[in-house]
Design brief:
This protein has about 180 residues and is mainly alpha-helical. A two-stranded antiparallel ribbon has the order 1-2. The radius of gyration is 18 Å and the shape is flat. The two termini are about 20 Å apart. The model has no long low-confidence stretch (mean pLDDT about 95).
Length: about 180
């Protein structure tokens, strides 16, 4: 099989878009005050996780081909302080980070695949940087979903296959996509 960077990049972008949707579907199930709920002082709220994810994306993907992914103006520690005040701010930060990253990914072309980029001074290939983000973002989206599930309780609507429905889901998928 021939390695096709464009196809692999499109696959990564689809994965990122999926995780973006999981976060947004979680926000939709959480009341405004739930976005700021913390289990305890040592834990993060959904809003804090959004601040961190957005800060990370903006730092990593702004001018990512020409500047270190840890921008000098980033204050990572402040990303874990209660800064966001309402749902509108949360969604704005969320979208700013995602738009920066997804737009940067869509600008990668054939000539970029051999470039070396840096994150905190460490050399990365483009593939390494994308894989690094594909590990980091879903980790935090999983936290957002878990917190959202705790907050929503019995009102939670599954974002994937609900418990006890795997067999019926598989049958439905087999009918849609026969082998």
């Amino acid at each position: 099989m021939i390695w096709k960077p464009g196809a692999r990049l499109n696959s990564a972008i689809r994965r990122f878009e999926y995780y973006k949707t999981l976060g947004e579907r979680t926000f939709d199930q959480v009341a405004d005050n739930g976005l700021f709920w913390q289990y305890n002082e040592a834990s993060n709220s959904i809003a804090m996780i959004v601040q961190h994810v957005a800060g990370n994306m903006l730092s990593r993907w702004t001018d990512f081909l020409t500047s270190d992914g840890e921008k000098s103006g980033r204050n990572r520690d402040a990303e874990f302080e209660p800064v966001i005040k309402n749902r509108a701010e949360l969604l704005e930060k969320w979208n700013d980070g995602w738009n920066c990253m997804l737009n940067a990914l869509r600008l990668i072309d054939e000539k970029d695949w051999d470039k070396t980029i840096y994150i905190r001074g460490e050399a990365h290939s483009i593939v390494d940087a994308i894989n690094r983000q594909l590990a980091h973002v879903p980790y935090h989206v999983g936290q957002i979903v878990f917190i959202g599930k705790m907050i929503a309780g019995e009102k939670w609507h599954s974002l994937s296959i609900p418990k006890g429905q795997s067999e019926s889901f598989n049958k439905k998928m087999s009918a849609i996509h026969p082998k």
